[in-house]
Design brief:
single chain; about 180 residues; alpha+beta; five-stranded antiparallel β-sheet; 4 helices; binds coenzyme A
Length: about 180
């Protein structure tokens, strides 16, 4: 399934799948191989949804029952700050003005990790690519909750909505964001 890749990538893939299978097992799913789609998005077993992420030093997976959760998007990033040259690529002008990350120790990397998580929730469902400028993130009053809005009107909604919510938190020296769309929300 992976082809000719480095040992590091093989390990990373195996660890991601290990965590994903474990998350599914805890929900009562029988062990099944988690294959990948052509665009690399994991293929979850019937009745399940999930997401996998790796940072340079860590790896994690989340899973849910489709009866409760329609889609999940997980991203884990290490603590290395976002390069200044990347700021205008990752952040919209409104985000740059708001600077809602200013009291967060990860700075604008907060916006990056959230957008990656949002993409992982959004793209498997819509089969659409999202550019960083297609999404606007609000982290508000630093409670660890975020709201992301698909602001490019040419992009389809996901589950009938342009808004995707989730949480962010420090994770093993780095930062993690999880985008969640609950059924019925
Ligand atoms: C897909 C992408 C988000 C992965 O993020 P990353 O930080 O490079 O890598 P991570 O380790 O966190 O995630 C990789 C895992 O995500 C999953 N993944 C890959 N493509 C995916 C997709 N299209 N949708 C959902 N999950 C995907 C896979 O499980 C993959 O690991 P695996 O190949 O070992 O199974 C990134 O490579 C990408 O293509 N980004 C461009 C688009 C984007 O980020 N837009 C943001 C604007 S909102």
């Amino acid at each position: 399934m992976l082809g000719n890749v480095s040992p590091r990538r093989r390990r990373e893939f195996a660890w991601g799948r290990h965590h994903a299978r474990e998350a599914l097992r805890r929900l009562g799913f029988a062990p099944v191989p988690i294959l990948s789609r052509g665009d690399r998005a994991p293929l979850w077993p019937p009745g399940g949804v999930g997401s996998i992420s790796h940072s340079s030093s860590d790896c994690g997976a989340v899973a849910g029952r489709s009866s409760d959760v329609l889609a999940l998007g997980l991203d884990i990033e290490d603590e290395e700050p976002l390069g200044a040259d990347l700021l205008p690529i990752i952040c919209s002008s409104a985000e740059l003005q708001r600077r809602e990350w200013s009291s967060n120790r990860f700075g604008p990397k907060l916006i990056f990790v959230i957008k990656e998580a949002v993409y992982k929730l959004y793209s498997p469902v819509t089969r659409e690519f999202l550019d960083f400028q297609d999404v606007s993130v609000r982290t508000g009053d630093h409670t660890g909750l975020f709201e992301a809005e698909i602001i490019n009107p040419e992009k389809p909604t996901s589950f009938g909505s342009r808004t995707i919510n989730g949480i962010y938190l420090p994770f093993r020296g780095g930062i993690l964001a999880l985008a969640v769309r609950f059924r019925g929300a």
